Amino acid sequence: MISLPDSAKYVIIGAGVHGLSTAWHLAMQMEAAEPGSGADVVLLDKTYPGAGATGIACGCVRNLYMTEPLHAIVSHSVDVWNYDPVLFGFQQVGYVSCGEENQIPEYEKILASQAAIGYTSDVYEGQEARDFLTNLWPDFRHHSIDVVLHEHLSGYAGTAQTVRGLTEMCERYGVQIYSGVEVTGYDMSGDEVAAVRTNRGVIRGDVVFLCVGAWVPLHWDMLNLPLKLDVTYEDGTTVREKDMWTFWRLDEGEIYYDGPYYTADGRNPPVLHIELMNTPVQDPVTGEMLDDNVYVYWKNGTERMQRPGIQGGAMPHLLGADAVIDPYGHANDEYQAKPEFADYITACMGMFMKRFEGIRANFRERRNGGIGAFTPDNVPIMDWIKPNMFMIADSNHGFKMTGIGKLVAREVLGSEPVPELAPFSLDRYGKGAAFGSGVTNSPWV
């Protein structure tokens, strides 16, 4: 039987990438400054480390966001990935994103924002963009591609290896990790969290961290926080009584390919992302229209495959404010990727690279499913939601953002707020600083 301590200085709920990273960085920074040690940090998970979205993510590490403050978060995250890339399984192969002519201003804006923080990238336009792609992949078919962003510092990682690596760093610094501990409620003292109630007893914490991914709406409700709010965006639009949390179902999977899948010079290719809103996708056999646009990404496979192959995904699907969270991921019958996803991703692969023609039969038929809880503007919230409770709600941007834990530890242990976290405050919705627009339907902004 698990016996929890009666109290700890820091209690972290959720052992996904954010909980693990926060625990490790708290312990490491305390040891360096000598006000404490990892023994002051208790990390709880209802199942085990990496049992949620972290453990089934495709593993991409990219900085392709129109939300400019996210660029600094990813930059810090790449620093964390490179702290020990072998331990964390980080492959810094780069990230190549392709768009149409109407996206050129967006790509140029992203490039300028990334350059301002020293995140090395290039943009290619017109024929230069197409030549760049052909030089990487000689069999590439360009269709309507007119702009390419090449992020040099990005890449991907194997999720199981990342979880093992982060767990090892926590253990190295003395963090106490408890699996099989489910939070059932909170005892409050005024507006502060006095104690965390679990199926294994009650634990008090001076500071509590909420890092629970898709389960955040359940904890939000336990804390009696509002499930609806008015959201005013940067462009002045306002949406009244918007759901605080909205669930999306993710579509990701694997395709066997004995290739090998290399670039023209024999290297592991960058992650490839293609987003063409005016280019339809057809079934290569029947000619049936599968979708009126392209949104797809893929890379070399890492884990969960018995032989070489590709891992990739497409646009997630909106579920709404209610979803069945348990059982989670591949264990949940309701949220598995449909056969239409396999048709779509393999059609896209063959559409853009000749080597992948006819690859539909190689799609790995296994359970592929997961859901995420998105914020009102589909951008992470990283803020104090109670005087002594800090929430990381990543809006499914999460696996790549190992740097959030580093910044949160600095915020908690330091004497000044961390400026990189300021744009992601909870009060932005009422201050007219929500990201994007009230008419935006994309989950990634």
First-last Cα distance:
45 Å
Helix/sheet category: alpha+beta
CATH class bucket of the domain at 1-91 and 153-229 and 377-445: Alpha Beta
Number of helices: 10
Tally of strands? 23
Q: pLDDT below 50 for ≥5 consecutive residues: which ranges?
A: none
Major sheet: size, sense and barrel closure? 8 strands, mixed
Global Rg: 22 Å
What number is the mean pLDDT? Answer: 94
Shape: globular
- In CATH terms, the superfamily of the domain at 1-91 and 153-229 and 377-445 is FAD/NAD(P)-binding domain
What's the architecture of the domain at 1-91 and 153-229 and 377-445 in CATH terms? 3-Layer(bba) Sandwich
Q: Percent of residues in helical segments? A: 10-25%
CATH topology of the domain at 1-91 and 153-229 and 377-445: FAD/NAD(P)-binding domain
Strand content: 25-35%
